[in-house]
Amino acid sequence: MSYADQVFIQTCKDILSKGVWDTDREVRPRWEDGSPAHTIKLFGVVNRYDLREEFPMLTVRKQYLKSAVDELLWIWQKKSNNIHDLHSHVWDSWADENGSIGKAYGYQLGVKHHYPQGDMDQVDKILWDLKHDPASRRILAIMYNHHDLSEMALYPCAYSMTFNVSGNTLNAILNQRSQDMLTANGWNVMQYATLLHMIAQVTGFQAGELVHVIADAHIYDRHVPVVEELIARKPFDAPKFTLDPSVTDFYAFTPDSVKLEGYQAHSLDPKLIPVAV
Ligand SMILES: Nc1nc(=O)c2c([nH]1)NC[C@@H]1CN(c3ccc(C(=O)N[C@@H](CCC(=O)O)C(=O)O)cc3)CN21
Ligand SMILES: O=c1ccn([C@H]2C[C@H](O)[C@@H](COP(=O)(O)O)O2)c(=O)[nH]1
């Protein structure tokens, strides 16, 4: 059984059995028909994935790794905030008439800051530190910039990634303030596991643990029956993940740099997953 399935199933069971509904409150997100999208949530979920053991990928529902990696590279490599630079439609509902999602995600990672080593953005600072100062405990990127929140279509959810070296191993903590379990838990985990593999490869480390800290892990009301069906399924084993070993420059990765072997997964009709906006 894929370890990511085990974690997903347990987290969803915990949310459904111990979670708290927000039905008595006003909430921001809406369904397509305009009704409020309520959730049941659990506060403070921490999941650990050891990338040396296996790649964290769901099999209880088929996932599209290349599409997820395309969005990851849109943020971390292209540092774009425009959906015209994205090959999927996952951000369409939050874009303005020019395709912009405002000063969120990729925009924040593209802003240059002044450091003792020179002016660079947060991604290049991470790459510089891992190459020149791997003992540093200050290697992180953060997109939750209060100064610019009023100009973001959606406030960053997966908002910070902290890198930390132990021996030859590169570990990371993904901080996420809000997680839509059905739409994006598997999606975000495989994205940031891939990022850890990529950054480790180009800085000469072995990818180790990804620790995923989620403040508000929730299941939307209309997703509950789908989640109940998914967690009753019998998972397959995790696929084998490989990253093109010839890539030594972070900016040379493409979605085709990732490969999966032996990925077996249950299908799920996308119409069953409406996304609350
Ligand atoms: N309510 C909500 N949940 C989210 O997960 C979410 C937001 N809003 N707003 C911004 C982004 C958009 N996200 C999304 C939206 C849709 C898919 C999605 O439909 N994924 C499909 C594959 C899509 C494709 O490959 O083109 C899937 O099956 O995983 C994934 C992430 C995650 N984020
Ligand atoms: O990468 C992402 C982006 C977004 N989400 C989810 C989490 C929430 O359900 C919504 C955002 O709504 P807020 O009211 O701003 O929390 O999007 C995700 O899970 N992963």
Automatic annotation (TrEMBL):
<comment type="similarity">
    <text>Belongs to the thymidylate synthase family. Bacterial-type ThyA subfamily.</text>
</comment>
<feature type="active site" description="Nucleophile">
    <location>
        <position position="157"/>
    </location>
</feature>
<feature type="binding site" description="in other chain">
    <location>
        <begin position="218"/>
        <end position="220"/>
    </location>
    <ligand>
        <name>dUMP</name>
    </ligand>
</feature>
<feature type="binding site" description="in other chain">
    <location>
        <position position="188"/>
    </location>
    <ligand>
        <name>dUMP</name>
    </ligand>
</feature>
<feature type="active site">
    <location>
        <position position="157"/>
    </location>
</feature>
<dbReference type="GO" id="GO:0006235">
    <property type="term" value="P:dTTP biosynthetic process"/>
</dbReference>
<keyword id="KW-0545">Nucleotide biosynthesis</keyword>
<dbReference type="GO" id="GO:0032259">
    <property type="term" value="P:methylation"/>
</dbReference>
<dbReference type="InterPro" id="IPR045097">
    <property type="entry name" value="Thymidate_synth/dCMP_Mease"/>
</dbReference>
<dbReference type="InterPro" id="IPR020940">
    <property type="entry name" value="Thymidylate_synthase_AS"/>
</dbReference>
<dbReference type="GO" id="GO:0004799">
    <property type="term" value="F:thymidylate synthase activity"/>
</dbReference>
<keyword id="KW-0489">Methyltransferase</keyword>
<keyword id="KW-0963">Cytoplasm</keyword>
<dbReference type="GO" id="GO:0006231">
    <property type="term" value="P:dTMP biosynthetic process"/>
</dbReference>
<feature type="binding site" description="in other chain">
    <location>
        <begin position="177"/>
        <end position="180"/>
    </location>
    <ligand>
        <name>dUMP</name>
    </ligand>
</feature>
<dbReference type="InterPro" id="IPR036926">
    <property type="entry name" value="Thymidate_synth/dCMP_Mease_sf"/>
</dbReference>
<dbReference type="InterPro" id="IPR023451">
    <property type="entry name" value="Thymidate_synth/dCMP_Mease_dom"/>
</dbReference>
<feature type="binding site">
    <location>
        <begin position="137"/>
        <end position="138"/>
    </location>
    <ligand>
        <name>dUMP</name>
    </ligand>
</feature>
<dbReference type="InterPro" id="IPR000398">
    <property type="entry name" value="Thymidylate_synthase"/>
</dbReference>
<comment type="subunit">
    <text>Homodimer.</text>
</comment>
<keyword id="KW-0808">Transferase</keyword>
<feature type="binding site">
    <location>
        <position position="180"/>
    </location>
    <ligand>
        <name>(6R)-5,10-methylene-5,6,7,8-tetrahydrofolate</name>
    </ligand>
</feature>
<dbReference type="Pfam" id="PF00303">
    <property type="entry name" value="Thymidylat_synt"/>
</dbReference>
<comment type="function">
    <text>Catalyzes the reductive methylation of 2'-deoxyuridine-5'-monophosphate (dUMP) to 2'-deoxythymidine-5'-monophosphate (dTMP) while utilizing 5,10-methylenetetrahydrofolate (mTHF) as the methyl donor and reductant in the reaction, yielding dihydrofolate (DHF) as a by-product. This enzymatic reaction provides an intracellular de novo source of dTMP, an essential precursor for DNA biosynthesis.</text>
</comment>
<comment type="pathway">
    <text>Pyrimidine metabolism; dTTP biosynthesis.</text>
</comment>
<feature type="domain" description="Thymidylate synthase/dCMP hydroxymethylase">
    <location>
        <begin position="7"/>
        <end position="267"/>
    </location>
</feature>
<protein>
    <recommendedName>
        <fullName>Thymidylate synthase</fullName>
        <ecNumber>2.1.1.45</ecNumber>
    </recommendedName>
</protein>
<feature type="binding site">
    <location>
        <position position="276"/>
    </location>
    <ligand>
        <name>(6R)-5,10-methylene-5,6,7,8-tetrahydrofolate</name>
    </ligand>
</feature>
<dbReference type="GO" id="GO:0005829">
    <property type="term" value="C:cytosol"/>
</dbReference>
